Amino acid sequence: MGSSGVGQYPTKTQVQFENFDDENIVTSAANNGKKECNGTPKDTSPALPGWYADVSWPGEAHIYKMEKIIFQGKSEFQELLVFESSRHGKVAILDGYIQLTENDEFAYQEMLTHLALCSVPNPKKVLLVGGGDGGILREISRHSSVQHIDICEIDTMVIDVYKKFFPDIAIGYEDPRVHVHIRDGIAFINSVPKGTYDVIILDAFQPMGPIAEVLADKCFLDSVANALRPGGVLSAPADSLWHKNFVVADTIEKCKNIFKGSVNYAWTTVPTYASGVIGFMLCSTKGPPVNFKCPINPLNPEQNGVAKGPPKFYNSEIHSAAFCLPSFVEKAIDPKRY
Amino acid sequence: MGSSGVGQYPTKTQVQFENFDDENIVTSAANNGKKECNGTPKDTSPALPGWYADVSWPGEAHIYKMEKIIFQGKSEFQELLVFESSRHGKVAILDGYIQLTENDEFAYQEMLTHLALCSVPNPKKVLLVGGGDGGILREISRHSSVQHIDICEIDTMVIDVYKKFFPDIAIGYEDPRVHVHIRDGIAFINSVPKGTYDVIILDAFQPMGPIAEVLADKCFLDSVANALRPGGVLSAPADSLWHKNFVVADTIEKCKNIFKGSVNYAWTTVPTYASGVIGFMLCSTKGPPVNFKCPINPLNPEQNGVAKGPPKFYNSEIHSAAFCLPSFVEKAIDPKRY
């Protein structure tokens, strides 16, 4: 294919707005110097007016019609865009990545939370790093055994915007067990006394590269392991199994060395994330053994905490199923078996 | 949002080509009078030159850069477009719908086939309706108990194009047990003596509406049930669980009345299908009971038939996991339980 007229498409980094009050035309702009996780810069773009383009990988994008721009702002840490979509309700874009949509956020939030909390008996103290939207707090709130929930979120803009525009998600903040710490997550983790938490949930979520980077940061993971009690559990998002450079085997090996307990990869469907799938990494520290595939602390459907109803996605069967992997993923994780 | 500059985007029905030999510019055209499954016509479109737009639902599309147009043709039945994509290998578009991509076809083909064939003991005679690409034949070929495979495909163009451009998929035709019938599937099914097949696989695949329509056709399903032996099994694609108008409960009820055995909905991940998910409907006729959730006829990893290697996706664990449903799907299927 020739070069003229092709290779030009909207990218998702640094959205800009023209005619904001009138037509809500969104023009995606240049690359802002950031790199794709595969090391190649994103294409620069002419615009697809009125549409938001989520560029999964070069040569592919998911586009959403923006019915109405609801919020656009920039804090000292990141840019946040909220728009009303035709089909997915409100959509939140953080630094150019889809963070969540009202239509399918529950799948991610419920699985990230309950894959961890339903795998340990009687969890009492939980730390959430990131997750300023409040959806994970809403899910933790369903667990009556929990006595104390710390959330460490660096960006008050995120909290404020979600409280204003996504009340059914930010409702998690209404749980009186929640203690909000506006701080850098790494500094917070480093300050935590050894063995403080039963469960730590990492929701500093940027699809693809950055997750792998966080999970590749040995110092950070050492601090997380240190902050967990023996047999405590970390839950973190991980790359989609369809990621072209799916390298979860290295991450699992590293996590096994650091956490010294069970380490498992799981996955579920979230249609608005790239490839329609998100992965999860579950790790337990040395101590009472944890079998992530068999939840021992099932949710009580009568106890929803501050959530307005029972979980829409999670149940014990889908918990176990999330750890069943396609053969090509099993092979990627354990090449020696094949 | 105002009307000018928005509400215009590429649609997928009736692709047209301009400057075919030079720039391979694809311009999606108007709606061709077809309707979306929800009854509303698709938007008409200006083009996104050099890209193919798969419009999942109004207000949303998945776009793919077309590196090279490989084939475009029209038979008396349908239009077929094959292009080389940046990331998914060759992509086949049938009547404006993504039929498959080289990158992820195995997930659909393996699951549709083995969810059925691994659920019955010693299957000997199998009918495939549609599936002219040959991928399902390739998967059936792994089963050494099978003695006879009929495929009824109406369109020789599909077979010819796949044999030429997708040899690793069309390799299924090389199995000597395969008997090709170029006929209308419904007429073929109606001509089959009662109780002929152990397994029938329906691969007349068009995402969203049309599948539901096929599964809603009582006469057709009666003929399928008649063509199956007692305790025989039908496998067919079904709507994604994320479909806005997910109405699988009605389909299950209808299938239970017709087949009188087990009827189950399953799902798996196929990133290039709308919402990243495809559903499956599994039905068994009255006779020896079939428990779809517990495969009793596992694949032998040493026996791959004409396939070039072991399955990439299917295994017994992912088989059972495919029947574990998110809570909102369970509720949609059995509202009385909630």
Automatic annotation (TrEMBL), chains A, B:
<dbReference type="GO" id="GO:0008295">
    <property type="term" value="P:spermidine biosynthetic process"/>
</dbReference>
<comment type="similarity">
    <text>Belongs to the spermidine/spermine synthase family.</text>
</comment>
<dbReference type="InterPro" id="IPR030373">
    <property type="entry name" value="PABS_CS"/>
</dbReference>
<keyword id="KW-0620">Polyamine biosynthesis</keyword>
<dbReference type="InterPro" id="IPR035246">
    <property type="entry name" value="Spermidine_synt_N"/>
</dbReference>
<dbReference type="GO" id="GO:0005829">
    <property type="term" value="C:cytosol"/>
</dbReference>
<feature type="active site" description="Proton acceptor">
    <location>
        <position position="203"/>
    </location>
</feature>
<dbReference type="InterPro" id="IPR001045">
    <property type="entry name" value="Spermi_synthase"/>
</dbReference>
<protein>
    <recommendedName>
        <fullName>PABS domain-containing protein</fullName>
    </recommendedName>
</protein>
<dbReference type="InterPro" id="IPR030374">
    <property type="entry name" value="PABS"/>
</dbReference>
<dbReference type="InterPro" id="IPR037163">
    <property type="entry name" value="Spermidine_synt_N_sf"/>
</dbReference>
<dbReference type="Pfam" id="PF17284">
    <property type="entry name" value="Spermine_synt_N"/>
</dbReference>
<feature type="domain" description="PABS">
    <location>
        <begin position="49"/>
        <end position="285"/>
    </location>
</feature>
<dbReference type="InterPro" id="IPR029063">
    <property type="entry name" value="SAM-dependent_MTases_sf"/>
</dbReference>
<keyword id="KW-0808">Transferase</keyword>
<dbReference type="Pfam" id="PF01564">
    <property type="entry name" value="Spermine_synth"/>
</dbReference>
<dbReference type="GO" id="GO:0004766">
    <property type="term" value="F:spermidine synthase activity"/>
</dbReference>
